[in-house]
Write a structure and sequence with these properties.
The complex is a heterotrimer of chains A (958), B (89) and C (416). By secondary structure, chain A is an alpha+beta fold. Chain A contains 20 helices and 52 strands. In chain A, helix 4 packs parallel to helix 5, helix 9 packs across helix 10 and helix 9 packs across helix 11. Classes of the chains: A alpha+beta (958), B alpha+beta (89), C alpha/beta (416).
Chain lengths: 958, 89, 416
């Protein structure tokens, strides 16, 4: 318990008292604190345990790069694992738990692994756990999985909501430190549309905590005046708490706005987070630089922190990390640290500067700093501030493949040149002096014309001499804190052949933790380079990829969750179907009426009754989901001839024809009925599943292949309600609705297609076509009339006992009739396979004609559609059973085909199916073995003609 | 990625459906030996490609987008009909 | 040096200073009997089996970057043998059997973990398709189980069963499916091949293929000219590019597939699960990250990175399947270049150029195939005839009309 609250100063509101709990223990903090600063102020340094060795760990940074102080925040469905204590804004009632420890953070049994750390070096697991073989999955792996991972995710649904939003701007400024503020202000004053985003809870960047002098004011005062001016300009959008997490093609930036993470629960109707896609004409990277740790023994002991983080905590949050601090540095920033600490009354015990030969070999103390071993003697202290130099935060600029460039003079990687759309300024560009930041800012913010002057400021000394690793360290020296990768792991990787920076990363896991190597990677690269005899520039970096910091799934999902995952399409007859008690089924995005149960009926009883009633009298089915495409133009017939394998230009006006369409590879694409309503007007129907693809295919064929054809087309799927009226009493039922037209075989013969009016003037299209095999019609009316017309049909059919029937009954009837549908049109069958080979014209070119003639597509052994019935008529057929010759042992080689579609036939009182069977048309009558290993039964079945019912089509023409 | 649709202006790529190399040419004769090549074989360039793109979420026109497959840089887009006309001439 | 707990203990005593490289970094020889282009999983496995199973020695693997820098190092690590076509599944089942003995065979722990692959279904039609697929597996002795909704719920009670737009109706489970530590596969094969004399040439990029009278005689590389008797292409997403050096045009387009990993979590999902009403599949690595992916971005690409629309599309599906994922965070995304073939199935074949062999077209299913691909490719190269489980992977199947189209999407690579 060495940290404490400094008496004065800071940006916290000392009048507020916020209560919070960490690991069940109660603490208080102030508005303006983070969880990390409040814990430090309460004397708590131990905040987490590391991944492999379960070493006690404290906070090391004050920002989003934090690898150690990760907690489970909140509870229940709102619990979030791995949340950085450094980024959690304190609120009253906050509850957090430490993670990856058992039974407690203070006493963690997992720490025994560190006893075996001499074995647990990089990649040790690739060399062992192989014997005995069965032990991996039964013993080793479950233990490893249990020990691995960090926090525990909730398994309850998240009660909060998320939003997605889109923004466009002239200039996006990423980061609101001195350079970013200056650039945004300059651009905003010139009238540009500016978005200024910063991941911090407040705008200002380093000016929120560093002591600077700008234009005669303190840095903080200056920043507040600039922010106030920006806020007053209408063309400026200020976005604090917003992390730009990725840069994508088209200068599009992904951003996460933490709208309500700083409160316990979002207010009603407010989202927790908002995901943004920002399309910027130009963007500026002003993300600043990240301080690097030094690599020395015990550099992970709680209380060892980045010097800038310690300044951040003391200056902004009035939270001192210790009373007596040792500073370890390779650069001039130690002076600033010492100066700030003295102001706060924090004793600077010693400054150890590597440039003067100073070294820390080890930090003494387990869960807190007790002393440092500086070589000759131990120096007592309770915190260590370290500074290994600064790395420009180049991540975003490297998200599209460019690699950063090593700059020896500042000992850091600087951003690549990625063009004028996205440029880096200030310390993100490696310009470490405040005056440079301002100069960059005004230049980059000038949209056109003369660059205005930059404010005057005082520069802090920045001089560095790279120093990477205290090799004489007597304790473990960590590079990747969270993953417990030590300095020794990298030379080991190089020794074993994993010397490429990407291989070393993968072998040692350096840089693969939740901080993605923000703090450790440059140190790792330098040490690896030395071990491999290369320069740092030659070694290069690993690949920077999104996300800059991790982004919640919820944010990417926005409102599209649960039942709103995808939109629901309802047919124009949906209301009618609901009235009729329909049970609906998801068919793509559509909700289709599946069956219409009466009290006590299950789906099979209901569907069976619907079939029987329809075949006995009349039934009404909603077929509105079928794709409908209106085709006009003088070349419409020729166009259809080229699309379909059969001919449509010869179709008489007022007639419908079944059409079959192939893909260019000769396989069947889709089928449906197309009718000719006028010389230059056809109406095409497609299957429900292919409606959209068919439309784009038609557009492709016209626009790309045959633009010379005079033809226009439009999807009218949603404009027309369409219903099938089927059964012996279909005509009598419809007659009651039709205006001035006597329905008979002369006026409306089989395959007639007619524009008519019904119910005293409602425009309608009447088709005498049948999928059920009954004397049947399809009636199309404008969508808005759908429900009313369906009700009228039901009313008209009452005297005949009309029933509504759903897709289950539809499916039964089509299988009884051997009509092919989705189960058979599976994207691998030819017209011949479906028994429709004769439809393929030999007199014209059409899509798929040539490729359909390939050897493999006309192979007599191809599987083609047959009917199938169990030999034992009481037995149930199931889809997906495979077919074997009797006597053949099961094998893929012996496999003859499979059952595609099955139905219980109420007409034949048995299960029927359609199957695809090798050379099936020649095998009607054969008894075959059905292999259904999945459901554990095998039985005999008879192959037959696919038309199970009314083979002579007597009912159709009745 | 942004696609400059000649009808709709610059639009996000998710409004489009892509269909590969636009330089393939459907043979006009049934005897042409290039049917297999037309249906199956592609240059698959690493670099500049002329690619079919259907503005399914917009004007529903088939376009040919000129793009770099290494960098995703988009150079422009034309109406497929015009691209094909130019290709033929 | 054999890897074992004993060698680890021994080396720990000397501070791990005495480990030798897992593979050498040799200078290219002037000539090899066989050159394999591509130091990914398939190329290294091919070299390993050529040396181990066929006793061939004078072999080089050319890798333009570092070994495993392509798709073997950037996939979602899933293994399964749940295909339904005769031309496919016996091959993938051979692969599964090789996975099952791989670590002991090449003395490297690749963490082969058969925790099950579960495909969810949401409609009757999907269930019928799974029944067909599952029975195709069963008929050949491969394990498959058809689960109903309650059986799925028992395995994964925290999925969305009550509020889903597309309710889960069941699933097809292959218990022998699972995951493997992907990088370790490349490393294990590289080490095993190197031990048997194979030269692994990293940083060696193929720049041209030399032929004479329709026969391969050698290659130009970034490290100079190298002669060879046989040249075996194994370049995944870059297959079209390298094949074009020999004048070949392939039935392949290259597309980007993104994949993702979440922050590390305590055990959350045991096996691999695929969503059936959107593009999302997920498993959890031994390290704790949820490894997940969905679909290719849809446009031709060699960029190894994708864009936000697909990120949103995939993660929306993930949360639809598992609502509690909303508060889990996506840590990193990456992309691989997929050699999407015209029927969704691969090619392992000779070419019209004598001595030139082709292994390509793996779409996004290459990782699980790694051992069998190496095994069968080695067989083809060594014996000049296809292995019996790879006879359908011929280049002329398109011309002849014997496509291997599991999905029935036809010659539209971005739909496979």
């Amino acid at each position: 318990m060495t940290g404490f609250r400094i008496k004065n100063g800071g940006l916290i509101d000392r009048t507020s008292e916020l209560n919070f709990k960490f690991d069940g223990k109660s603490f208080t903090g102030h508005q303006g604190d983070t969880l990390a600063s409040a814990l430090i102020a309460n004397g708590v340094h131990l905040m987490g345990r590391s991944f492999k060795y379960h070493r006690p760990r404290g906070v090391i940074s004050a920002g989003s790069s934090e690898p150690n102080a990760l907690v489970e925040l909140r509870e229940g469905g709102r619990k979030e694992a791995n949340t950085r204590a450094t980024m959690i804004e304190l609120y009253d009632g906050l509850i957090a738990q430490s993670q990856n420890r058992w039974p407690s953070l203070d006493f963690d049994v997992g720490a025994v692994t560190s006893l075996a750390s001499s074995i647990f070096v990089a990649g040790f697991y690739y060399k062992t756990f192989m014997w005995p073989k069965s032990f991996w999955e039964k013993i080793y792996e479950p233990l490893i999985r249990k020990a691995a991972g960090l926090g525990t995710a909730s398994r309850e649904a998240d009660p909060d909501t998320y939003e997605k939003s889109y923004a466009h701007c002239d200039l996006l400024v990423v980061g609101s430190g001195p350079a970013g503020l200056m650039a945004a202000l300059t651009a905003a004053r010139s009238g540009a549309c500016v978005i200024l985003a910063d991941e911090g809870s407040a705008l200002g960047g380093t000016l929120l905590f560093e002591n600077e002098e700008i234009a005669g004011q303190s840095g903080f005062e200056w920043s507040q005046s600039v922010i106030a001016e920006l806020a007053s300009i209408p063309n400026v959008t200020l976005m604090p708490r917003t992390t730009i997490f990725g840069w994508f093609d088209g200068n599009i930036f992904g951003a996460l706005e933490r709208v309500n993470d700083h409160v316990a629960v979002p207010a009603p109707f407010e989202p927790r987070q908002r995901y943004w896609r920002i399309q910027a004409k130009r963007a500026i990277l002003a993300s600043g630089a990240e301080e690097r740790p030094l690599v020395f023994g015990g550099n992970d002991v709680p209380g060892v922190m980045l010097a800038s983080a310690m300044r951040h905590y003391s200056n902004r949050y009035a939270a001192a990390a210790g009373k007596s601090v040792a500073i370890f540095t390779n650069n001039d920033s130690a002076l600033r640290t010492a100066h700030d600490f003295k102001q706060h009354g924090i004793h600077v015990e010693v400054i150890i500067d590597t440039r003067k030969g100073g070294r820390i070999l080890n930090v003494k103390g387990g869960k807190g700093v007790a002393a440092i071993d500086a070589g000759k003697h131990l120096i007592a202290c309770d915190a260590v501030a370290m500074s290994g130099g600064w790395s420009p935060i180049v991540n975003l600029m490297c998200h599209r493949g460019a690699k950063p460039i090593w700059n020896e003079s500042i000992a850091a990687f600087t951003p690549p040149d990625v063009g004028a759309e996205f440029t880096a300024i200030g310390s993100a560009a490696g310009h470490m002096l405040l005056s440079e930041c301002f100069a960059d800012g005004v230049r980059a913010g000038t949209m056109k014309g003369k660059v205005p002057p930059a404010p005057k400021c005082r520069d802090e000394a920045f001089a560095i001499q790279p120093f990477w690793w205290v090799k004489e360290s007597t304790g473990k020296a960590f590079i990747d804190y969270q993953n417990d990768a030590t300095a020794k792991d990298l030379p080991l990787a190089a020794r074993e052949g994993y010397g490429h920076v990407e291989l070393a990363k993968r072998y040692t896991t350096t840089g693969m933790a939740t901080d993605q190597g923000k703090l450790g990677n440059v140190n790792a690269i330098a040490i690896l380079a030395e071990a491999s005899g290369k320069t740092i520039a030659e070694m290069g970096t690993t690949t920077f990829r999104p996300f800059y910091t991790p982004v919640s799934f919820g944010a990417f999902t926005g409102p599209f969750t649960g039942r709103h995952f995808q939109p629901v399409r309802k047919t124009p007859l949906h209301g009618w179907a609901v009235e009729q008690g329909a049970v609906f089924v998801e068919t793509g995005l559509w909700m289709r009426s599946s069956w219409f149960p009466k009290t006590g009926e299950d789906w099979l009883a209901s569907a069976s009754r619907e079939v029987k009633s329809t075949r006995a009298s009349v039934g009404l089915c909603d077929v509105s989901t079928l794709g409908k495409i209106d085709i006009h133009g003088k070349d419409a017939g020729i166009f259809l001839d080229r699309l379909y394998c059969n001919t449509f230009s010869t179709l008489s006006i007022g007639k419908a024809r079944y059409g079959l369409m192939l893909r260019e590879d000769g396989i069947v694409f889709d089928d449906g009925t197309t009718s000719r309503l006028a010389e230059d007007h056809y109406v095409m129907t497609t299957t429900t599943a292919n409606a959209a693809r068919m439309m784009s295919n038609i557009e492709f064929c016209h626009q790309v292949h045959w633009p010379e054809l005079d033809v226009q087309y439009v999807s009218v799927t949603e404009q027309w309600a369409q219903m099938a009226v089927a059964g012996p009493k279909a005509r009598a039922t419809l007659q009651k609705l039709v205006d001035k037209l006597a329905l008979n075989d002369e006026t409306v013969p089989y395959l007639a297609a007619k524009a008519i009016t019904i119910m005293g003037g409602v425009e309608a299209r009447l088709f005498r076509i049948s999928f059920s095999g009954e004397h049947a019609y399809e009636l199309a009316v404008p969508a808005d009339f759908g429900n009313a017309v369906a009700r009228a049909i039901m009313h008209a059919g009452t005297e005949f006992g009309i029933v509504p029937y759903g897709v289950e009954a539809l499916s039964i009837m089509r299988i009884e009739k051997g009509h092919v549908a989705g189960g058979e049109l599976n994207g691998t069958t030819t017209a011949g396979d479906l028994g429709l080979g004769k439809m393929m014209s030999t007199k014209k070119d059409y899509i798929g004609r040539v490729m359909a003639q390939r050897e493999g597509l006309v192979d007599p052994q191809r599987q083609c559609v047959v009917g199938i019935r169990p030999v034992d008529h009481t037995m149930k057929l199931r889809s997906g059973g495979h077919l074997l010759k009797q006597g053949d042992a099961p094998s893929m080689q012996a496999d003859q085909g499979y059952i595609c579609s099955v139905a219980w036939s109420p007409m034949l009182n048995m299960w029927l199916g359609l199957a695809l069977l090798s050379n099936g048309r020649a095998r009607h009558g054969e008894i075959i073995k059905v292999f259904d290993g999945l459901r554990g039964h095998h039985y005999l079945a008879e192959i037959c003609d696919p038309v199970h019912f009314d083979a002579k089509n007597e009912r159709l023409h009745a | 990625m942004l696609i400059p649709c000649p009808h709709c202006g610059t639009r996000p790529a998710e409004e489009f459906t892509f269909l590969g190399d636009a330089n393939v040419q459907r043979p006009t004769s049934l005897e042409d030996p290039n049917w297999n090549s037309y249906v199956y074989e592609r240059d698959n360039p690493r670099g500049k490609i002329d690619e079919f793109a259907y503005h399914s979420g917009g004007c529903r026109a088939w376009l040919v987008v000129s793009r770099d497959t290494k960098t995703h840089e988009v150079f422009g887009a034309v109406i497929a009909k015009n691209f094909k006309r130019k290709q033929k001439s | 040096m054999k890897y074992s707990v004993f060698s680890l203990l021994k080396n720990s005593l000397s501070g791990h200073k005495n480990w030798t490289p897992a593979w050498r970094s040799p200078e290219p020889k002037k000539e090899y009997d066989i050159i394999i282009v591509g130091g990914g999983g398939h190329g290294l496995a091919t070299a390993y089996y050529l040396a181990k199973e066929h006793g061939l020695k004078n072999i080089a693997v050319l890798e333009k970057n570092y070994i495993g820098s392509g798709n073997v190092g950037r996939n979602t690590t899933i293994i399964r043998s749940n295909y339904m076509l005769l031309g496919n599944n016996p091959f993938y089942e051979l692969s599964m059997k090789l996975w099952e003995g791989l670590e002991q065979d090449f003395n490297f722990n690749a963490m082969v973990s058969q925790r099950g692959v579960l495909n969810l279904c949401h409609t009757d039609a999907q269930r019928d398709a799974f029944a067909r697929r599952g029975n195709a597996m069963r008929i050949d002795g491969v394990d498959a189980e058809l689960l109903d909704r309650e059986a799925v719920r028992e395995m994964y009670p925290f999925f969305d069963y009550e509020n889903a737009r597309f309710p889960i109706k069941g699933g097809l489970l292959q218990r022998r499916g699972g995951t493997v530590r992907h990088d370790a596969v490349a490393w294990g094969y590289a080490r095993g091949a190197d031990l048997r004399g194979v030269d692994i040439l990293q940083g060696c990029e193929l720049t041209d293929i030399q032929t004479e009278n329709g026969k391969v005689i050698g290659v130009q590389t970034s490290r100079g000219e190298i002669k060879c008797k046989k040249l075996a292409l194994c370049a995944a997403g870059h297959s079209s590019e390298v094949a074009s050096m020999a004048g070949l045009k392939l039935p392949i387009e290259s597309h980007v597939l993104q994949a993702f990993v979440s922050e590390g979590l305590k055990p959350y999902i045991d096996g691999v699960v695929t969503f059936g009403a959107g593009h999302f599949y997920v498993s959890q690595s031994d390290k704790g990250g949820l490894v997940f992916g969905g679909d290719i971005d849809g446009y031709n690409s060699y960029a190894q990175r994708g864009n936000l629309p697909m990120v949103e599309h995939v993660i929306e599906a993930g949360v639809a399947m598992i609502p509690s994922l909303a508060r889990v965070r996506a840590l990193r995304s990456w992309g691989g270049v997929m050699d999407m073939s015209m029927d969704g199935s691969p090619i392992i074949d000779k070419t019209s150029v004598h001595g030139l062999y082709l292994n390509a077209g793996w779409c996004y299913g290459g990782f699980k195939a790694t051992p069998a691909s190496g095994w069968c490719y080695a067989h083809l190269i060594a014996k000049d005839e296809p292995h019996k489980v790879a006879t359908a992977f011929r280049l002329d199947r398109f011309r002849r009309g014997y496509m291997l189209d599991e999905k029935g999407q036809g010659a539209t690579p971005n739909l496979h």
